[in-house]
Amino acid sequence: MSETVDVVLIGGGIMSATLGTLLKELQPDWNIVAFERQGEVAQESSNAWNNAGTGHAALCELNYMPEAKDGSIDPAKAILINEQFQQSRQLWTSLVERGVLDEPKTFINATPHMTFVRGEKDVEYLRKRYELLKEQPLFAGIEYSEDSRVINQWAPLLMQKRRKSDEPFAATRTPSGTDVDFGALTRQLFDHLTESGAELRLNHEVTKLKRQSDGTWHVKYRNNVGRTPGEIRARFVFVGAGGWAIKLLQGARIPEIKGYGVFPIGGQFLKTTNPKLVEQHRAKVYSQAAVGAPPMSVPHLDARVVDGEGSLMFGPFATFSPKFLKNGSMLDIVTQVRAHNLGSMLKVAVTNLDLVKYLIGELLKSRAKKIEGLREFVPTAKAEDWELIQAGQRAQVMKDGKLQLGTEVVSSADGSIAGLLGASPGASTAASIMLNLIKTCFADRVAQWEPKLRELIPTYGEMLNEDAEKARASTTATASALGINA
């Protein structure tokens, strides 16, 4: 085996792009090779039409602040998500200033984030949530209203032909929210990586990972066009292949993957590019999830900007496929089963009957029923204005008998291999996730890399929400640099 490199990245999404960019900045002399099984990068979860591009900062997503049985609400998770998104913003700002990324408007645009709820119980909850968040520095500027005239100014489509007498409603709004095209961002990062000497091998699929006696990894792959096999040796491997990651990590036989399983959930969105509708809705509006719905299925009406064109997306409507990727295998859900994760997966099935009921209900929904769901947000919606599009697959983590929210990095004890499992809010918090991975897998180098990390992320290692002045200065600076001033 003649070819040996420092880093192999598996998967052409935002995670591999972010990690590769960070490592190239920290260690320019390292050889990096990225493998992507499709003909282009950002074709799965990072693709703009496979996600809602929210720019998750917990400004509007209620699932990060669930109400406890005693009625209490804890803002800790929402604050953490916001902290993580601020790191992404700082990294993108540095990369724009260095010329790594193109004009900010090509991948990020100012888009207020809103929450809209109906019914006395949810209105009371939203009011309590607002009272907690308005005191947090990273949530400065959040607004609350139960006045239809005010909400109509924020998002006219929500209020047309809606009467307060039918049921109480309320909304919050944070003007500093964003819309992010992660597909464009991923492509720009990979363009820079290849210009900096990294190699991107498209239409190449990694088929096997085997640890060598010297601690390196023997990586087998094949060219999906010519079906020709190949192999390479790597000192470090990152598996950022979405739902495919669990299969590769299981094949690598690292003990840390034991007990893990993933549950695939697909989605569809209703989309419109009707200029009259797009003009009336310049926000991302989230609501409460249906009983039993997975966290990623929270209904929302999102303003999007993709390749410079404005559109609206509503959904998601859950679909089911045994595939772990949109372009995966029908056998994915079965081939992940091992003796060490079977019990946990069966427990998830037994203890999540609400989820099963929800998925069955979603699968039985006709297009007309989906339009009815849209009209709960947009009372005047016309079916002919909206098309149904298929979104990406999400592989949600199952561990210890529980279906988990979020993303999780699984790494070997020696730090020579790591992979990412899970879904939302992954893309938005990619910088933070990859920084934590670097701390874990390159612990012996972090100290010497820290000055460079602080250049890229000025508040690296700090918690912005603990210092109101620092939080204000950081968010103002990145907003200005990225052109996302409210």
From TrEMBL:
GO biological process entries: tricarboxylic acid cycle
Keyword Oxidoreductase assigned: yes
Annotated metabolic or biological route of this protein: Carbohydrate metabolism; tricarboxylic acid cycle; oxaloacetate from (S)-malate (quinone route): step 1/1
Catalytic activity field: (S)-malate + a quinone = a quinol + oxaloacetate
GO function terms (MF aspect): (S)-2-hydroxyglutarate dehydrogenase activity; L-malate dehydrogenase (quinone) activity
Pfam family, one: Mqo
Domain of life according to the entry: Bacteria
Cofactor: FAD
Entry EC no(s): 1.1.5.4
Enzyme class, first EC level, given as a word: oxidoreductase
InterPro entries in alphabetical order: FAD/NAD-bd_sf, MQO
Keywords of this entry: FAD, Flavoprotein, Oxidoreductase, Tricarboxylic acid cycle
Family: Belongs to the MQO family.
HAMAP family linked to this entry: MQO (MF_00212)
Matches recorded under NCBIfam families: mal_quin_oxido, PRK05257.1-1, PRK05257.1-4, PRK05257.2-1, PRK05257.3-2, PRK13339.1
PANTHER family the UniProt entry points to: L-2-HYDROXYGLUTARATE DEHYDROGENASE, MITOCHONDRIAL
Protein name: Probable malate:quinone oxidoreductase
